[in-house]
């Protein structure tokens, strides 16, 4: 019964992740739509430009941000750079676009996004470690479906780590976190994501 519930949970969460998988860069954070619901009909942002001077309108009919599920409030472009006048963003995982820095979009760092999230490892080759050390003992998590609550981020020696918390009995939404286990996983390797991010949990 628990496995069936976990599978049902996974199926319900998967559509709302809205996460593209292979951006060419992870940038410095996100340019986030203040009103994402206006893009439910796949409308292109009217203030999306091809140049940093904000004079050439975006011409491609396809526009997908990194997190794209506007009906759930997710419309987040990876931000490569921000200046006093614009956000330089990644569109469709590889194209470069520009948005004016006004009230229509706002900026959040990766840390701000992740500490509001839960994650799932893309592969089990990314072990859950007891301590923040490569040679640390591994925590075995036998659950079929992962839901790892993010507690904090640490960068050490060029490696990017998340401190995570999870229920040892595989309950996706435990009423009490007192009996939960904590550990560490890597969340990125250069510009490669090692986790799937669930902004809604």
Sum up the overall morphology in one term.
Answer: elongated
Q: Count the helices. How many? A: 2
**Spans with pLDDT under 50 lasting ≥5 residues?**
1-16
Distance between the termini: 21 Å
What is the domain total for the residues? 2
Mean pLDDT: 85
Which percent bin holds the helix content? 10-25%
Q: Largest beta sheet, briefly?
A: 6 strands, antiparallel
Q: State the order of secondary-structure elements, H for helix, E for strand.
A: HEEEEEEHEEEEEEEE
Structural class, judged by helices and strands?
Answer: mainly beta
According to DSSP, the number of beta strands is 14
Q: Rg to the nearest angstrom?
A: 18 Å
Task: Describe this entry's structure for a reader.
By secondary structure, this protein is mainly beta. The chain folds into 2 domains: 17-109, no CATH class; 115-198, no CATH class. The chain contains 2 helices and 14 strands. The chain has helices at 2-17, 110-114; strands spanning 29-33, 67-69, 74-82, 86-91, 95-100, 105-109, 118-121, 128-129, 138-139, 148-156, 159-166, 181-189, 192-193, 195-198. Strands 1, 2, 3, 4, 5 and 6 form a 6-stranded antiparallel beta sheet that branches. The longest helix is centred in the N-terminal third of the chain and has 16 residues, at 2-17. The protein is elongated and about 55 Å long. The two termini are 21 Å apart. Residues 1-16 have low confidence and may be disordered.
Write the layout of secondary structure elements.
Blueprint: H1 2-17, E1 29-33, E2 67-69, E3 74-82, E4 86-91, E5 95-100, E6 105-109, H2 110-114, E7 118-121, E8 128-129, E9 138-139, E10 148-156, E11 159-166, E12 181-189, E13 192-193, E14 195-198
Antiparallel strand pairs: 1-3, 1-6, 2-3, 3-4, 4-5, 7-10, 7-14, 8-9, 10-11, 11-12, 12-13
